[in-house]
Design brief:
The chain is mainly β. The chain has helices spanning 5-21, 49-52, and strands at 59-64, 67-78, 94-103, 112-118, 122-133, 136-146. Strands 1-2-3-6-5-4 form a six-stranded antiparallel barrel.
Length: 147
Protein backbone atom coordinates (compact mmCIF):
# COMPACT_ATOMS: atom_id res chain seq x y z
CA UNK A 1 0.00 0.00 0.00
CA UNK A 2 1.54 3.28 -1.02
CA UNK A 3 0.66 6.66 0.42
CA UNK A 4 1.19 9.84 -1.50
CA UNK A 5 3.54 12.40 -0.05
CA UNK A 6 0.69 14.94 0.17
CA UNK A 7 -1.55 12.57 2.21
CA UNK A 8 1.38 11.65 4.46
CA UNK A 9 2.21 15.30 5.20
CA UNK A 10 -1.45 16.19 5.70
CA UNK A 11 -1.93 13.33 8.19
CA UNK A 12 1.24 14.37 10.03
CA UNK A 13 0.04 17.97 10.27
CA UNK A 14 -3.36 16.90 11.63
CA UNK A 15 -1.76 14.59 14.19
CA UNK A 16 0.71 17.30 15.28
CA UNK A 17 -2.07 19.84 15.68
CA UNK A 18 -4.12 17.39 17.73
CA UNK A 19 -1.16 16.70 20.02
CA UNK A 20 -0.53 20.41 20.53
CA UNK A 21 -4.17 21.33 21.13
CA UNK A 22 -5.16 18.34 23.29
CA UNK A 23 -2.06 16.35 24.36
CA UNK A 24 -3.85 14.24 26.99
CA UNK A 25 -5.91 12.57 24.27
CA UNK A 26 -3.05 10.36 23.15
CA UNK A 27 -1.64 9.34 26.54
CA UNK A 28 -1.72 5.55 26.50
CA UNK A 29 -4.56 5.77 23.98
CA UNK A 30 -7.15 6.56 26.67
CA UNK A 31 -10.07 8.75 25.72
CA UNK A 32 -8.95 8.88 22.11
CA UNK A 33 -11.24 8.27 19.17
CA UNK A 34 -9.52 4.90 18.58
CA UNK A 35 -9.74 3.65 22.16
CA UNK A 36 -12.41 1.42 23.62
CA UNK A 37 -11.28 2.46 27.12
CA UNK A 38 -13.07 5.58 28.23
CA UNK A 39 -11.59 7.17 31.30
CA UNK A 40 -14.30 8.22 33.71
CA UNK A 41 -14.18 9.84 37.12
CA UNK A 42 -14.34 6.37 38.71
CA UNK A 43 -11.46 4.83 36.81
CA UNK A 44 -8.33 3.52 38.51
CA UNK A 45 -6.34 6.16 36.64
CA UNK A 46 -7.66 8.80 39.04
CA UNK A 47 -7.41 6.74 42.23
CA UNK A 48 -5.09 7.85 44.98
CA UNK A 49 -4.09 6.20 48.24
CA UNK A 50 -6.55 8.41 50.14
CA UNK A 51 -9.45 6.93 48.17
CA UNK A 52 -8.63 3.39 49.31
CA UNK A 53 -7.75 4.10 52.97
CA UNK A 54 -11.37 4.00 54.25
CA UNK A 55 -11.82 0.61 52.56
CA UNK A 56 -9.00 -1.32 54.25
CA UNK A 57 -10.77 -4.40 55.58
CA UNK A 58 -13.51 -4.22 52.93
CA UNK A 59 -14.22 -6.95 50.40
CA UNK A 60 -13.57 -6.48 46.69
CA UNK A 61 -14.88 -9.04 44.20
CA UNK A 62 -13.30 -10.48 41.08
CA UNK A 63 -14.69 -12.96 38.55
CA UNK A 64 -12.59 -16.05 37.91
CA UNK A 65 -14.21 -18.15 35.23
CA UNK A 66 -17.83 -18.65 36.31
CA UNK A 67 -17.32 -17.90 39.99
CA UNK A 68 -16.91 -14.69 41.98
CA UNK A 69 -14.00 -14.58 44.42
CA UNK A 70 -13.86 -12.24 47.42
CA UNK A 71 -10.62 -10.32 48.03
CA UNK A 72 -10.14 -8.53 51.35
CA UNK A 73 -8.02 -5.37 51.21
CA UNK A 74 -5.63 -5.93 54.12
CA UNK A 75 -2.93 -3.29 53.62
CA UNK A 76 -1.95 -0.08 51.87
CA UNK A 77 1.73 0.79 51.93
CA UNK A 78 3.55 3.86 50.64
CA UNK A 79 6.62 3.41 48.48
CA UNK A 80 9.33 5.99 48.92
CA UNK A 81 11.12 7.03 45.75
CA UNK A 82 14.45 5.37 45.11
CA UNK A 83 17.69 7.27 45.50
CA UNK A 84 17.67 10.16 43.05
CA UNK A 85 21.39 9.94 42.34
CA UNK A 86 22.64 12.16 39.57
CA UNK A 87 20.04 13.55 37.18
CA UNK A 88 20.22 15.81 34.19
CA UNK A 89 16.94 17.54 34.89
CA UNK A 90 13.91 17.70 37.14
CA UNK A 91 12.77 14.49 38.77
CA UNK A 92 9.01 14.00 38.66
CA UNK A 93 7.30 13.51 42.00
CA UNK A 94 5.25 10.35 42.21
CA UNK A 95 2.45 9.07 44.39
CA UNK A 96 3.28 5.38 44.65
CA UNK A 97 1.63 2.81 46.93
CA UNK A 98 0.88 -0.89 47.06
CA UNK A 99 -2.44 -2.55 47.77
CA UNK A 100 -2.41 -6.02 49.32
CA UNK A 101 -5.46 -8.27 49.09
CA UNK A 102 -6.02 -11.56 50.90
CA UNK A 103 -8.11 -14.54 49.80
CA UNK A 104 -8.36 -18.27 50.40
CA UNK A 105 -8.87 -18.96 46.69
CA UNK A 106 -5.98 -18.63 44.22
CA UNK A 107 -6.64 -16.31 41.29
CA UNK A 108 -3.82 -17.07 38.91
CA UNK A 109 -0.25 -18.25 39.27
CA UNK A 110 0.93 -15.59 36.83
CA UNK A 111 0.66 -11.85 37.31
CA UNK A 112 -2.18 -10.47 35.24
CA UNK A 113 -4.92 -7.85 35.02
CA UNK A 114 -7.96 -8.43 37.19
CA UNK A 115 -11.25 -6.51 37.07
CA UNK A 116 -12.13 -5.71 40.68
CA UNK A 117 -15.58 -4.65 41.85
CA UNK A 118 -16.39 -2.72 45.01
CA UNK A 119 -19.77 -1.49 46.21
CA UNK A 120 -18.59 2.12 46.70
CA UNK A 121 -15.67 2.46 44.24
CA UNK A 122 -17.24 0.63 41.30
CA UNK A 123 -15.23 -1.59 38.96
CA UNK A 124 -11.67 -1.07 37.79
CA UNK A 125 -8.71 -3.06 36.47
CA UNK A 126 -5.53 -3.71 38.45
CA UNK A 127 -2.40 -5.63 37.50
CA UNK A 128 -1.87 -8.04 40.39
CA UNK A 129 0.67 -10.68 41.35
CA UNK A 130 0.05 -13.56 43.73
CA UNK A 131 2.04 -14.99 46.62
CA UNK A 132 1.16 -17.59 49.22
CA UNK A 133 1.39 -17.20 52.99
CA UNK A 134 0.44 -20.33 54.93
CA UNK A 135 -3.15 -21.16 53.91
CA UNK A 136 -4.00 -17.81 52.34
CA UNK A 137 -3.11 -16.17 49.08
CA UNK A 138 -1.89 -12.59 48.91
CA UNK A 139 -2.42 -10.50 45.80
CA UNK A 140 -0.41 -7.31 45.42
CA UNK A 141 -1.07 -4.37 43.11
CA UNK A 142 1.21 -1.35 42.71
CA UNK A 143 -0.29 2.03 41.84
CA UNK A 144 2.08 4.79 40.73
CA UNK A 145 1.00 8.27 39.65
CA UNK A 146 3.22 11.09 38.48
CA UNK A 147 2.26 14.12 40.56
Amino acid sequence: MSVSRRKFLKAGAVLSAALVLKPGTFVFGHDSVWSNNSVSANSAHTYRREMFEPYVGDVFRVRIGKQMVDLKLVALENFAPASRGITTGKVARTDCFSMRFQTTTPLSTTAQMQKLNHSKLGSFDLFMSQSKQRHTFLHTAIVDHVS
